[in-house]
Design brief:
single chain; 382 residues; alpha/beta; Rossmann fold; 3 domains; six-stranded mixed beta sheet; three-stranded antiparallel beta sheet; 15 helices; 9 strands; 44% helix
Amino acid sequence: MSNVVEPALAGFDELFVEFGQILRESGMVVGSDDVITFCSAVAELDPTDIMDIYWSGRATLVRKKENVPIYNARFREFFLLMSEEESDERKLKIKASNHAGTTLEVPNVEQGLPGDASDDETKMGYVGSSSEVYRHKAFSDCSDEELHRLRRMISMLKLSPPARRTYRTQENPKGSKLDMRRMARETMRSLGEPKALIFSKRKTKLRPVVFILDVSGSMADYSRNLLQFAYSARRANERVEIYCFGTRLTRITKSIDKRSPDEAMRIAGESVLDWDGGTRIGDSIAQFIKEARRNRLGHGAIVVICSDGLDRGDPETLSKAMETLARIAYRVVWVNPHKGDNVDFVPNTIGMMIADPHIDAIYSGHNFKTLEVFASELAKMG
């Protein structure tokens, strides 16, 4: 088993094999290949995250719908219903992730799948989707429990990295242009008799994305959720860089890599010393430009600034910084939660008014629905 399972499991594979054996003893048909697939699936995700373990097992170990209640019951008993004397540190770590704010609620045997409803209820229209309610509810109006659920939804948000076309071409049967150079070479090899038409298309390359997140006091209702969004974008595209700023800029990209969302957010909070403090947007962007000139992070990138525009810094510094940023970046996008659902939004803070001439697009990001829209639009900006 150890030579098949990914090293990311770090000792958890034995625990998952034991869980597979318990399912067998409960009457489910679980083969060794199913357990190996289960372990491999968890290794691709997070072996300490209760949600990742649950759905990886559901997808790989459950073959029949009638076995779902059995799986749910055994999962609850094995991973969640532990005595206070439990000494297995792996189980304790997994259970702790459930307390850290995940949305997993494994149903009892009598219950069906999470969120299932009876046929009568569905036909009568009695069942409403709580996730749909959360999707349109502003982050500032949510309770702590609702925010935990929303952050989990954001972590599972499907983010497609923006891609740009390069000047290099590659052979492609579905291409729109004839590749005359390749055809000439092939003709010479075949002594003047071309074998077939060769089409080509331009290669694509992921475009870098930079998030610059305002974590000052005025953004307290939104900064944690926007950081979760940036974290999800980083997991989807390794060319994403993440910065936080209040009165100064802090790069947190490497400190949150390859960790669970909750752990990543904790480390980010420890790395940013001016969290919930004041705001100096101009100084922070000017500092980013200095780093961009040194290591070319922002050149040709989509730069996403998440801020409400409330700035205590020098307006002239902000104006010069935004003018320079607009020159080196491919697109400058501003996410301002105060925009809300207002389609005719006009910047009304000093920072936004100064930056507005250099911004290509403004999005809201005040609830999950607007983040979904932004994610969709970001994928098209390449």
